[in-house]
Design a protein that fits this description.
This protein is α+β, with helices and mostly antiparallel strands. It has 2 domains: 9-83, OB fold (Dihydrolipoamide Acetyltransferase, E2P); 92-234, Trna Endonuclease, Chain: A, domain 1. Helix content is 17%, strand content 45%. The protein has 3 helices and 16 strands. It has a 7-stranded mixed β-sheet with strand order 1-16-15-13-10-9-8. The protein has a 6-stranded antiparallel β-sheet with strand order 4-3-2-5-6-7, with no helix packed on it. Helix 2 runs parallel beside helix 3.
Length: 237
């Protein structure tokens, strides 16, 4: 494996990304930051609690919005905790999944020629549907930011949407269709992964039921830095 982190980045942050200090969070999707003596609001697309991450004066990294006419000019990307960077942008896992498939570095998705993002199945919209010689594979991608005692946990808040996705994946597996959940742990201090039964017992029960029914669980550690995001090793359950 290449040991140069700069050469293992799959998703680079855009030009104009900058560091700031966290001030406060409001209504989940609004975060106030301070940079160069100015306070301003940025967009946060993470609907979870981000438990333990957002503390006053914490260093964060924000990226410029792709559209100049967007109301909030920046998006929250990273939060620094105990000298490590934590990726909080929930759009990143599906992007990394797609880029890893294109780069042929994720063995679980080898043998599939086509990658369709946000494909609908029944009443759910899942992050990816892959097709090819191996048949059809449905994948839901989740962002993981909660780590305690070296264990990465998902979710960090009760997620009825996540429960719905697991039920859909279970139904697929029961019908003989390959189904999986890709958990991208966007921080470096995790050594294994498990469902957060102390946060969402229903999700945890569905998680273990899904494994019993044949749904695959892929927890991967991300390589997170202010330069961008890469794909690290798979973590054990």
């Amino acid at each position: 494996m290449n040991n140069d982190p700069s050469e293992r980045v799959l998703l680079r942050f855009p030009e104009g990304s900058r560091l700031a200090r966290f001030c406060l969070r409001e209504k989940r999707f609004l975060v106030k930051v301070e940079a160069e003596g100015e306070e301003f609001w940025v967009h946060c697309n993470n609907s979870g609690s981000m438990l333990g991450l957002l503390r006053p004066s914490t260093t964060v990294m924000i990226s410029p919005a792709p559209r100049q006419d967007r109301r909030l000019a920046y998006t929250l990307e990273l939060v620094q905790q105990n000298s490590i960077w934590v990726g909080v942008n929930t759009l990143v896992p599906n992007r990394i999944l797609n880029l890893a498939w294109k780069a042929a570095i994720l063995p679980e998705v080898s043998g599939y020629d086509h990658f369709r993002k946000e494909a609908r199945s029944g009443q759910s919209r899942l992050d990816a549907m892959l097709t090819g010689p191996r048949g059809t594979l449905w994948v839901e991608a989740k962002n993981v930011t909660l780590v305690e005692d070296s264990v990465a946990y998902f979710p960090d808040a009760v997620t009825t949407r996540g429960q719905k996705h697991l039920r859909e994946l279970i139904h697929m597996a029961q019908r003989g269709t390959r189904a999986a959940c890709f958990y991208l742990v966007q921080r470096a201090d995790a050594r294994c992964f498990g469902p957060a039964d102390f946060v969402d017992p229903e999700f945890a029960a569905l998680f273990w039921e899904a494994i019993k029914e044949g749904v695959e669980m892929w927890p991967y550690q991300a390589l997170v830095s202010p330069e961008g995001i890469g794909l690290g090793p798979r973590l054990p359950l």
